[in-house]
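Researcher: Final request for today, and then I'll write up notes for the group meeting. The sequence and the SMILES for 2-acetamido-2-deoxy-beta-D-glucopyranose follow.
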Amino acid sequence: MSESTPLIQSQYSYKNDDEEEAAPAPAAARGGRIGSRVRPSMSWVNKALFTITGLILFCAFLYLPYYFTPKAISLSKIANVQTLYTEFDDPFKRLIFVGDIHGNYMEFTKLLHKVKYNSELDKLVVLGDFVTKGPDSIKTLDYLVKHNVQCIMGNHEFETLKFYTQFHHLDAPTFSNTDSANKYKFLPASITQDITFNDDFRLAKKLQPEHVKYINSCPVILHFPKLEIVAVHGGLRPDLTLAEQDPLDNLDMRALIGPFFNETTDDPHTPNSVRWYKLYNKADGAVPANNIVYYGHDAGKGLNLRKFTKGLDSGCNKGKKLSAMIVTGEKRKNGKIELLEELVQVQC
Ligand SMILES: *[C@@H]1O[C@H](CO)[C@@H](O)[C@H](O)[C@H]1NC(C)=O
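Model: Predicted protein-2-acetamido-2-deoxy-beta-D-glucopyranose complex:
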């Protein structure tokens, strides 16, 4: 307080300037410099201004999170199985499957450049887990929405939808297959955990309606019956038809648990478990019906190409590679289509 300005000090030199505002101005100062007379009332005005500004800031602070919270939309049912009766040359020439992108937008665009992606001639299919973990989930989503890219639901998209509905107090996601819709009751348990640093939750809060609509539109299983191709994120149970599959298994499975192998687990170290693709290939494509399966989810195994199963999660988010499989077909004399594959990768 003793550090007042020299001007004031010279005019109020008779007193200890602790009581500067309360003390009446000396006669000598009256009619003197405007500054000295106005100063006490300025302080009062300042206080009022200060309070009002504070109130405005406080209200803004309270309101701001709502201002930045995107508008909420409720979900429609997630398709367990989506069927596309399209084939090569009708309407696309190439099918391009891309493994788990995890928000690595830069590598994704690099890969698309490398495969010379042409949205008019190619059908691009992202095999789930295209968001979270990596740096650019929203950018990736914007691209996928804008180019109307075909997606497959991954476990992270599904988790993000669950968090989205919890955050906005909406009904939890369900599947179009009514059995599954009734079978699964999603516990709000996850919201009670410490989810502040959960990537799926942080993304869920940022999603704009067009992002939500897009993720919500991704089927769990995509089936091209004419090409005998299936795309799924986690895997398939070889003992069930596509319609009988349990979507939560398809999103998250890595292995099947013995002795009956009719139960799945995401943890391949589970005792008595065998990676699902081993049994699927052993069944020699018998069930589910001769389909070649393109999938992701298993970065632990990395690129994993077998006769009937094609694992394309090559660990981009772990600094490894992002993979695309370009699939084209040649019609044989017997009317069967022989699939031709070309693998293209970029370093992450
Ligand atoms: C698996 O198959 C066995 C034998 O058929 C049966 O007893 C069991 O209930 C099945 N488990 C599941 C989860 O379907």
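Model: Residues 76-347 form a domain with the Purple Acid Phosphatase; chain A, domain 2 fold (CATH 3.60.21.10). The first strand starts at residue 81 and ends at 83.
Researcher: Thanks, that's everything.
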